[in-house]
Amino acid sequence: MPVPLMFSSLAARPRRLGLACGAVATGLGIVYLIAAGAPLLYPSVNAAAFGVGAAFVLIAGRARLPTGPVLLALAAALLATSLFGVSADGATRWIALGPLTLQPSLILLPVMVTAFARQPTRLAAAAIAIAAVAMALQPDRAMAGALAAGLAAVAALRPRRETVLVLIISLMAFAAAFVQPDQLPAMPFVERVFYTSFAVHPLAGLAVLASAGVLLLPALLARSATSAAFGAVWLAILFAAALGNYPTPFAGYGASAILGYLISLTALSAGPPSSPA
């Protein structure tokens, strides 16, 4: 198949492409975790998270995108986490499910922004605004920044009152999160992996970089508002992981980013966006 036709075929199936990219990134992350001597539980959890997330994408199939009421429910979950979630060193970002600790913002925000890019209704905008407030309350500079980055892409490609307003709100939330102290130390095999992986072996470091790069392929090949929002959110998450003590998606230990990436694929589409109500 000629290269241009191959790229067109991949861009026309962003969910399948994203699944393939997620599988590659998960595999590369597991290679790093094993090479670095991480506990066996860590690569096992990552592999299980990919299995659950991939099953969700396949089951979702051609299901309807999250609507305004669904996005409101997701935003309420993020707000509840910021008020009643698990706290550590002044941050309240997590929930505990038995022995597993999850970060809801990493799971829910990417799909919320991607769905909003396709259908920027007033109800969806209200949900995004609530999510922005939740990021400021937690506080979480990384996810507040990712939210603002995704909404900047949406506002640039679909300029209208709702998209510009929520972008302004998200920037205010990012500023509020940024001025609050963030004293969480880096967890081994979770944060600062872009740097510690090279101390393990240069090939391990290259595997980590490759796992990050492959995650952005769906956004680079598909040209739509949803793919731009998807790419901006995940690029910002990766950027935050490189700059501070924030989880390194796929390469580091953690189910939340893997689930969030795969779930956000369900809002990707190669077609034109629907007309918002």
UniProtKB/TrEMBL annotation:
The chain crosses the membrane at residues 17-35, 41-61, 68-88, 94-113, 164-181, 193-217, 224-244, 250-271. The keyword RNA-binding does not apply. Keywords: Membrane, Transmembrane, Transmembrane helix. The keyword Transmembrane applies. This is Cell wall polymerase. It comes from Hyphomonas polymorpha PS728.
